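User: Second chain of the day. Same drill as before.
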Amino acid sequence: MDENKIDELADVLGSTSRVAVLTGAGISAESGIPTFRGSQGLWRQFRAEELATPEAFERDPKLVWEWYDWRRKLIGEAEPNAGHRTLSAWQRRFPSLSLITQNIDGLHELAGSRDPLELHGNIWKTRCLRDGTVRENRDVPLSEVPPRCPDCGEWLRPHVVWFGEPLDSRVLDEAFRLCSSCQVMFVIGTSAVVHPAAALPLAAAEAGAVLVEVNPEPTPLTRAADFSFRAQSGGLLPLLDRKLGTRRAP
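Assistant: Same format as last time:
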């Protein structure tokens, strides 16, 4: 990693009060969570794209929930990594740090982050098909598959955004508002190709924010970033945090 660039970024952050962060699958992969997509994401003979849809749930809710039950077990064995923990600590360092994530694993909250904005929902929450009530459920394995609403007996579905479904407009609008008002935006472990999330860093840049990319591989965002580090968050962010420790907080 380029120490000079890290020092330069630390200088920028030393006079920054409003930070936004967008995280993607890469930060979860550092904790050992698979993507559940493509050939590596096969479960039985199914791909994620065949199961994470409203049509699949309508056709066979038990099969879909068996897959989510299996996923919840794998995710439940994972722990937040140093990248998650540093972002949590930064909510105390900076007057304003807004955390936006494409991940559904809940690791940011487990690391201590407050109120992460979850673009794609949360695998540890369920939603009633009748009245839309959302509840947390961390039972592993589930006691009943598919689970039913304790109030009305209707089936519950995972509180996640499936293929073919739009993101919650309120969540997305808030994400754009936060990105458009930040001074520095970190984009961590995301391919920067899945829309509308991929448009968030561009909205920040158009509003004058400094863009910081942290990703082991280059992405379509790399050329637009002011700082782009080919690194994992668990290595880069703690190092940057130590550099910040030598500077006066804003």
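Residues 131 and 152 are 9 Å apart (CA to CA).

User: Great, on to the next one.
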